[in-house]
Amino acid sequence: MNIKVVSVGKLKEKYLKSAIQEYSKRLSRYCKLSIVELSDEKTPDNASEKEELQIKQKEGQRILNNIKDNEYVIALDLKGKMISSEEMADMISDLGVRGNSNIVFLIGGSLGLSDEVLKRANYKLCFSKMTFPHQLFRVMLLEQIYRSYRIINGEPYHK
């Protein structure tokens, strides 16, 4: 299974980079993981709705340029479906069984994902109605992917 995380925004914090390295190492026994960091657009203070839309579209085009036709795309979106860790494990397992061995998770920038990106997504996933920094969210996503593989393989993992 190939898992790709496409994320808008560069990771600067050392402690988050360490956490991502740790989960990447843990995941290496279950899947081939790749992480694509895309530059974000600077959002001016008091940006108009039109400016925000243009920023999302620019970031969205960068995201779409990193998605292949044969990839199953899961967009992380506040309007997506909330599922449990067990349900996420079932989804990853089912995708593999059905021949979808290339899964891409998308994390948008501070303004979210463009409509074009959301239209391309095969599934929209919401972790919580709360807002998280997208840099921290990368760690949370990798942890849940790791937890999914532990569940799939019947291996113990704290609840």
TrEMBL record:
GO terms for biological process: methylation. Its EC number is 2.1.1.177. It is found in: Cytoplasm. It catalyses: pseudouridine(1915) in 23S rRNA + S-adenosyl-L-methionine = N(3)-methylpseudouridine(1915) in 23S rRNA + S-adenosyl-L-homocysteine + H(+). GO terms for molecular function: methyltransferase activity. Pfam families: SPOUT_MTase. Its main location: cytoplasm. S-adenosyl-L-methionine binds at residues 76, 108, 127-132. It is an enzyme of class 2 (transferase). Keywords: Cytoplasm, Methyltransferase, rRNA processing, S-adenosyl-L-methionine, Transferase. Belongs to the RNA methyltransferase RlmH family. HAMAP family: 23SrRNA_methyltr_H (MF_00658). NCBIfam families: PRK00103.1-3, tRNA_RlmH_YbeA. Homodimer. Specifically methylates the pseudouridine at position 1915 (m3Psi1915) in 23S rRNA. This is Ribosomal RNA large subunit methyltransferase H. The lineage of its organism: Bacteria, Bacillati, Bacillota, Clostridia, Eubacteriales. The gene is rlmH.
